[in-house]
TrEMBL record:
Name of the protein this chain belongs to: GNAT family N-acetyltransferase
Domain N-acetyltransferase: 30-180
Organism: Nonomuraea composti
Gene3D superfamilies from the UniProt entry: 3.40.630.30, NAD(P)-binding Rossmann-like Domain (3.40.50.720), Succinyl-CoA synthetase domains (3.40.50.261)
Superkingdom of origin: Bacteria
Amino acid sequence: MGCGFTVETVEAQYPAHWEADVVLADGGTAHVRPIRPADADRLRSFYSRLSDESIYFRFFGPRPRLSDREVERFTNVDYVNRVALIATIGAEMVAVIRYDRTGPGEAEIAFLVEDAHQGRGVASVLLEHLAATARERGIERFVADVLPANMRMTGLLRQAGYTAQSQFEDGVVRMTLDLTPTDTSTEVTIAREHRAESRSIARLLTPGSVAVIGASREPGGVGQTVLRNLLAADFTGPVYPVHREVRAVAGVRAYPSVGEIDGDVDLAVVAVPAEGVLDVVKECAEKGVHGLVVVSSGFGETGEEGRARQDELARIARSYGLRVVGPNCLGIANTDPAVKLNATLAATVPGRGKVGFFSQSGALGTALLQRVAQRGMGISSFVSAGNRADVSGNDLLQYWEEDDSTEVILLYLESLGNPRKFTRLARRIARSKPVVVVKSGGTPSGHSAEELGLPDSAISSLFEQAGLIRVDDLIQLFDVGQLLAYQPLPAGPRVALVTNSDALGLLAAHACRAVGLEPRAPVNLGPAAGAAEYGPALAGELASPDVDA
């Protein structure tokens, strides 16, 4: 390269491990990957959509178009001394960031974001990923020359959290970033991820309109069931049934495709056979839908062919900026009076309450919601993730941490997905909101916890260190959740015991002492005691100034 230094020669092999699906600041998604020679036309198209100002800030002067030689240079990199990452949404390139090594441990960087996508956090994500690739290639510092008027870029570089220095010379600000991770840069990354994932779930749970794709007239059909539940819940926005052959479903005008719906569609519930889901995802992307709830089965739960179909579903959806709940899920619900969303297969959804409820199981979801409703325990929102092609319990934790309507979080988990991230999130969130977990013994694919490399004792230890409350079954999950949501905290550790058995009273006293409480001598009402005896006895103990609970 003629830079007066040498580096170890590495074959210019495409580094596929640099590819990633990312969530942007507004809750949308994009795909990040290294640039390829085949991206030449994509780069030309991207450049043609840039404003004169964006081009001026990048090249320090007007440049109406890129020459063939420039396009060839920008798209042909060695992935060592010259690296470029692009962000794509669907087939279109919306941003590019690159570095060129200029000396030992140092590289110059530059980036461009399409004007229509500026302000979505694309550049921040690309900078994080480029810094990681640079460290992998032995680069310790980034240098950027920035025009003083380009406040957006200088702000981005300063706010990345790395140690930054700047100097003004010849009308240009030269900024130097030390790429050594700092506590601040780590916090910036975590905070950006948190905001983005929280916002993406908020978009799913607070749609302004919903389309039900596959809503047939067949009584008891999956699509019609979701449609009727949406209507029965009095959803506050328009609901659009989509069916290729019928004119109306449940008395509501139907459309032959989502693309032919007159208004905007924020959320689409997909209830078509598995073979047709991928085509529907593409139609939804073209319509501008923000999120999908796929209740259709026939994916990862059915074997290798279904797993491949599920992976393709996730890939297509994320490439177009869509988040996906499911497939093979029960659906989602939000009891906020401003939304009133019941996009589930469950006719009974609990009323408004303080509990956020996540269930990994679609099959158990209906029974779980009925049980919660029977107890009179309201929920703030509910998500059944099914096969978790995309949205997981980690995403919901991010959302519920920010949601003022949620004071207690209940999780029914069959597997942990990313245990490291789950633990990090749970440890932070459990400081302010109780998180109660029931972890079943297996996963949808039939693997036990031990087969996944995490013995049950390790999971219990992991939960305890994160500050979670682990319970043994669903009854305990709801008992503890109801207690945390509706029972005020005792003023102190003094506990009165009212019983009809000395042996049970002693066991209860021992359990209290084991967790640091101060039990009083049990009041034994005798084996024949019933409600008439317990009522006055409990009232008397609670009225005592020496009793906290």
